[in-house]
Specification:
Helix content is about 25%, strand content about 35%. The chain is α+β, with helices and mostly antiparallel strands. It has one domain: Hypothetical protein YunC (Hypothetical protein Ta1206 fold, 2-Layer Sandwich), CATH 3.30.1980.10. The protein has a 6-stranded mixed sheet. The longest helix has 6 residues.
Length: about 100
């Protein structure tokens, strides 16, 4: 099952996507400029092989719901996210606000 919903954080709209897979969930919350995602995100790939794209993204692990993804500390981030003032340990919610 795939679900897509709008969420509002401090009067800013984001899109939350959840894909229910066997034994796991795939989750992401996106703005027009970047996104946060569950542990499925390969930050090393984005930083190394796709560096020229300047992707703004962060990854949180151990999350099972969108709410947890928003509240969890980011475990890893892309170089471009770091350039926007996003850092490891910042909540997904805080990171998204820096992606607008």
């Amino acid at each position: 099952m795939v679900s897509m919903t709008s969420i509002i954080i401090e009067n800013n709209q984001f899109t939350a996507i959840t894909i229910k897979l066997p034994k796991t969930n795939f989750m992401a919350v996106t703005s027009e400029k970047g996104y946060i995602m569950c542990g499925a995100l390969d930050v090393a790939l984005l930083n190394e092989k796709l560096k020229d794209r300047g992707i703004i993204a962060g990854r949180a692990v151990g999350v099972r719901t969108i709410e947890q993804l928003l509240d969890a500390p980011l475990e890893s981030i892309t170089f471009e996210a770091e350039n926007r003032g996003i850092h490891v340990g910042m909540s997904g919610r805080e990171a998204l606000l820096r992606m607008i």
